[in-house]
Amino acid sequence: MDRLKLSHIDEELDSSEVAALRFLCLGIVNRKRMEGIKDAKQLFLRLEENGLLDNGVFLAELLHTIRRADLLSLLEADSRRPEETDARPTLSPYRVMLYGIYEDMTTENFEKMKFLLSSKLGRRQIEASNTALDLFVEMEKADLLSPTKLNDMHAVLKEFDQQLALTVKRYMDVPPPPHVSMVFQLVNNGSQQTPSTLSISETQPNIEGERIYSDAQPNRQPSSVANEAEYYDLNHNPRGLCVVINNEKFLGEELKDRGGTQEDANVLKSVFSRLGFTVVVHNNLTASRIRSELRELSKNDFLAHDALVICVLSHGEKGCVFGTDEKKVGLRELTLPFTSKNAPTLARKPKLFFIQACQGDGYQEGSVPCPPRPGEEEVRHSRLQEDAGPVRGETVAWDADFLMGMATVPECKSFRNTSTGSIYIQELCRQLIRSADSVEMDDILSVLTRVNREVGKGEYLTHKQMPEPKYTLTKKLVLKYV
Predict the structure, then answer these.
(1) What is 3-77's CATH number?
(2) Where are the domains of the chain?
(3) pLDDT tens digits, residue range 256-281?
(4) Which residues are catalytically annotated?
């Protein structure tokens, strides 16, 4: 490759990025030859020795992995089609997976990891590890980590970050083949393809013990790509905002004050704070204030947020909730400010809405009486109230990556205990806590299914209540403590 272009790339890379490139090349370039490398120019010489700079494909893959796609324009493109390139090494998915863990690990969790590994690594190895990448290399030298030996890594990560542990577990369950380059078309055509359209090279050398595909095998999308796409990323701390609209005092004559709602607001604040969200509570908002608060919220930059949670505790009717001035706010009006069109930095991120309000003036009945659950405190009928309103409103419009957890199905009332809070919100928080405490990776829909089951078992003022989740989520969402 043109040395001048390589020199320009070297000038753009800082020391941490060079360290990342060096780590990603281990297993492709001899480990001894990688020692002592301080800048990108030295790394490029090692790559050149191994014939890895004959065209721009391998270096482009490296730069793309460390999120320096802005430098790809400096590379020369190979004139041949990607599937015609002979014996072209690509990055090991094992190293790319470890690099992703390094990127998402906080300084606090890195220190926890060093402490947990101090009994297996020597003091010198721990002290020499200034970054998680250094620590991974020391684990490899101590035979604690390899593409086929990930149990120690998984066990340590489970102690402080379930999402990172899940990344390792998915790799352990289905080790991906190392044959997909995400930059073929980016280098050759100047445009990036999605993983489903990428080619698989059948002529790969066996890198770091990964699989080899023969010429007889058809090109397939690696299962790891599908697995990675199954879960929403939760990498930031805080995860995002949880906004609670808590209407207790109503200004008109038709809607009663909502005793017990403060218990719901308190438990939501407690649970979502533990799940890593910054919680903001707005008390007693009129309909216009609800709209204006949500409009202002939608103008935020959500780039550093993984998700958004909005909880509305109020009276309601079908398709709407009520402000404290007894005016309606349609459910569509709650979600519309946060569609991809109106809040582009929330695109492809989960947006969760939990609505504690009636959705009609009817009652849901059960065919047979249901006895109280063993050990559960009996709900006193005298303290149960309905979150119902006098009129009906509009229906909901949906967009991608929304979930709306409704306290009840359409046409029916929901119930709230004036002392302990609403049936739905209290059960929702119990199930979120259960899921966060569990070693199982229950997604939010599994949590809401249990909420349906537990709420549906009860009997309230001789009636039943059945919550209803509606969603357009495109991935699984797993909420764990931060």
Answers:
(1) 1.10.533.10
(2) 3-77, 98-173, 240-363+397-472
(3) 999 999 999 999 999 999 999 999 99
(4) 315, 358
